[in-house]
Amino acid sequence: MKEIALGLFILTYVLLLVFPKIRAFIALGSAALFVILGILPAGDVFGAIDWNVILMIAGTMGIVSLFIDSKMPALMADVLIDKMPDVKWATISLALFAGVISAFVDNVATVLMVAPVALNIAKKLNISPIPSIICIAISSNLQGAATLVGDTTSVLLGGFANMDFMDFLFFYGRPGIFFAVQAGMLVSTFVLLYIFRKDKTPIHLEEKETVEDYFPTVLLLGMILLLIAASFIQGKPNITNGIICTGLLGIGLIRELMKTKDHSTFKKRIAEIDHFTILLLIGLFVVIGGIVEVGIVADISDLFLYVAGDNVFLIFTIIVWASVFFSAFIDNIPYTATMLPVVAAISTAMGIEPYLLFFGLLTGATLGGNITPIGASANITALGILRKNGHEVSTFEFMKYGIPFTLAAVTAGYLFIWFVWS
Residue 22 domain-assigned? Predict the structure, then answer.
């Protein structure tokens, strides 16, 4: 049975890599086979799915949709850009702004918010928008690891390790992964300063965006504050964070329905939730539950231990940089979902707390996607926006920005996590 499960698991990953447009159906089909073949008992399927993660992602996506349409992110970007003296600082400030937004909003949504501002500036100054939009994408990916709601990978870690919003900031009296990400952002900013050192064309915006509705901003801030408050409640249900996110989305939808009196707006908001990612995760949770059930996760952890022995620094290094490598070519959602139980098993076998390795995994898996154009959904989205506006970007041109940014950010985060958490 183990051999069948391993073969099906490998086949699933190959198909996910080869056919990215139908990943959700591949994962669900594989999950169905795991159950039909008896690898995972049918009675364990519901329990294998982390419903808190699913509800958090769905609720956050819906609230972000309302937030984007309110025009608040565009206004914030306009105000920021208007204070910058030239293109160099405008590009860097947009990248940093995208990072700040991405710490609380999905990376793809962040790119969709901020990229149009960069396009507008480029058209006014008659310059290429390619460097700016690439930097917006890679900065979004970096900050996605900073908070519980910043990226799907962060939500996965929070659900698996039972971590709350505040745990990403301070955990067991020590700085959490949030500060490791900021260390990476600080170092990578110097890389951007060097790359754009010659772009000194003056800049000024004539018009600023107008906010149409402040309620979505209140909803988003309310979600963050409630998630923080929930972090201090002991013995709360495991699904608390998911209920907070979906509950606030429900309030936003009801309010919008009452305001517009148009039932099609409700359908529109539901349609804007990324059902594809949610179905992908449901399928992956079942598949991973199956390989845990038959002992494959334990075997993978044994392989890591065989290579690294009892050297904690070596195993930490392997996990970080292997994650960077793999995430450059495969989506970091299935990779992270698979590796979390592996890392937990390694930690148990070595008799150490798992958080050092968890943070290393998240750092490598989230930031590694910045190396190539296909390494993260935000990158693909950014290149799609550029393509629609007549700008084709080669892999080499993307990597010209992605590689130095990634190496600087990962190295800083890697060293920070080791010295703080080892």
Answer: no
Which residue in 89, 156, 77, 88 sits closest to 117, CA to CA?
77
Q: Which H or E run includes 82?
A: helix 72-82
- The residue among 343, 414, 344 whose CA lies nearest residue 422 is 414
DSSP-assigned states of every residue in 111-173: HHHHHHHHHHHHHHHT--SHHHHHHHHHHHHHHTTSSTTS-HHHHHHHHHHT--GGGGTEETT
Q: Would 366 be classed as within a structural domain?
A: yes
Helix, strand, coil shares of the chain, percent, nearest 5, are 75, 0, 20
Residue at 108 is within a domain: yes
Could you tell me the sign of the dihedral formed by the alpha carbons of 181, 183, 184, 185, in that order? positive
Q: Which two tokens stand for residue 54?
A: 């699913």
Phi, psi of 338 (to 5 degrees): -75, -40
Residues forming beta bridges with residue 175, ordered by sequence position: 170
Amino acid at 83: K
Residue 120 lies in a domain: yes
What token pair was written down for 51?
């419903």
Give 10-residue mean pLDDT values along the chain (422 residues): 85 80 87 90 86 82 82 77 80 87 79 78 79 90 85 85 89 91 92 85 72 87 84 79 90 87 77 79 85 79 78 92 82 80 88 91 87 78 81 85 92 95 85
**Residue 42: closest CA among 305, 289, 321, 223:** 289
Query: Both tokens of residue 207?
Result: 């018009």
Total tally of structural domains belonging to the chain: 1
**pTM listed for this prediction:** 0.78
What is the span of the domain harbouring residue 61?
49-283+293-421
Assess contact for 337 and 288: CB atoms under 8 A: yes
| Gap between the Cα atoms of 421 and 409, Å rounded | 18
Distance between CA atoms of residues 200 and 353, nearest Å = 49
